[in-house]
Design goal:
single chain; about 210 residues; four-stranded antiparallel sheet; about 30% helix; elongated
Length: about 210
């Protein structure tokens, strides 16, 4: 025994209480394979039953039946106007401006109904053009005094009544009705057309009283 050993005291072995000894942590089945020494363990319980997932609510906008009933006449009128406008557009689009009927009608409307010789001149050729040039010269003074062709438009109406052919020319018959100061005057017009430079033109005009 050395000198330093004399300072050491020997004591008999004293049993240590069980409370001071470390105890092993019990691992449940839910933590099997995830146990790590030295780390705090958490017990995983079953997921609580929350029931079926809630359905998302949808919003519907309801229109009162009284409002729909009140708007039905307006909707019917609107659709009716649209149908009329569409049909008029289709009919106007179906008109072939190159047909002799179209050219003859345009001439009669300008010459007889509107009394517009200058406007009717574009639909004529040969003798019909010369006739209009003479009339324009004779009525120049009247037009310079302020007379307008539109003033006589409401007093004349016309209707195409027949069609015939003579060689390469086509002839149309018209019924012209003239109203003057309460009196009516009917005349028959004979309009003859011919192909001029691949287009139909009025070449002869004859008017007779009925």
């Amino acid at each position: 025994m050395t000198a330093g050993d004399s300072d050491l005291e020997l004591h008999p072995l004293v049993p240590v209480p069980d409370l001071l000894l470390p105890r092993p942590v019990a691992v449940t089945d839910s933590l099997a394979g995830f146990f790590t020494p030295g780390k705090t363990q958490f017990k995983v319980g079953p997921r609580p039953d929350r029931g079926p997932p809630a359905r998302q609510s949808r919003r519907f906008f309801m229109i009162p039946a009284q409002s729909l009933h009140a708007r039905r006449p307006f909707l019917r009128r609107t659709f009716a106007l649209l149908a009329v406008a569409l049909s008029m557009g289709l009919l106007s689009g179906c008109k072939d401006e190159g047909t002799p009927e179209y050219v003859a009608d345009q001439f009669v409307e300008a010459y007889f109904q509107r009394m517009d010789q200058q406007g009717a001149r574009q639909f004529t050729a040969f003798g019909a053009t010369e006739m209009l040039d003479r009339e324009l010269e004779l009525t120049r003074g009247v037009r310079e005094q302020g007379y307008l062709p539109a003033e006589a438009a409401a007093q004349v109406s016309w209707k195409r009544t027949g069609r015939s052919s003579r060689g390469e020319r086509i002839r149309f018959d018209y019924d012209i009705e003239i109203r003057r100061e309460g009196a009516q005057d009917h005349r028959s017009a004979d309009i003859e057309l011919s192909k001029v430079q691949a287009g139909w033109k009025v070449v002869r005009v004859a008017v007779q009283p009925r």
